[in-house]
Design goal:
- The chain is an alpha+beta fold.
- It has a single domain (about 5-129), classed as Roll (Thiol Ester Dehydrase, Chain A).
- The protein has three helices and five strands, in the order βααββββα.
- It has helices at about 25-40, 40-50, 125-129; strands at about 5-10, 55-65, 75-85, 90-95, 100-110.
- It has a five-stranded antiparallel beta sheet with strand order 1-3-4-5-2.
- The longest helix has 14 residues, at about 25-40.
- The relative contact order is 0.24.
- The model has no long low-confidence stretch (mean pLDDT about 95).
Length: about 130
């Protein structure tokens, strides 16, 4: 049985920041993506795409920025999935530096086939969430 939230570590490098010295806002979407991949299992996601032709796309996302991360920070992306329907899962994904909440995120994903049509979330993914 999985334990929630799933925690994924992210180290902030100089390249992650913008001219203000803060992490560029769009980079948090990349961090969320990495955290979800690790939560679901990269090998299984690759297998699903190559063998079954099933992938995931973002349906909707929302972020609230409370405080910026900076070069040198060690962050945690804490992710908790919630099944919304047979086709859609919502990930609550929050960014922490220690116990300080920096960014609150919600990302809704849907499962699609190679043609982009909705398909049911595969059983192997359901078992992980």
């Amino acid at each position: 049985m999985a334990t929630w939230p799933h925690v994924h570590a992210v180290q902030i490098y100089y390249e992650d920041t913008d001219h203000s010295g803060l992490v560029y806002h769009a980079n948090y979407l990349r961090y969320f993506e990495r955290a979800r991949e690790h939560l679901l299992g990269v090998p299984e996601l690759v297998r699903l795409l190559r063998e079954d032709g099933v992938g995931f796309v973002v349906y909707r996302c929302e972020m609230v920025f409370r405080e910026g991360a900076v070069f040198g920070d060690s962050l945690q992306i804490r992710s908790t999935p919630k099944l919304e329907s047979e086709f859609r899962v919502t990930f609550k994904q929050d960014v922490f530096r220690g116990e300080k909440l920096l960014v609150q995120g919600t990302v809704e994903m849907v499962a699609v086939n190679r043609e982009g049509s909705l398909v049911a979330i595969p059983a192997t993914v359901l078992a992980r969430i």
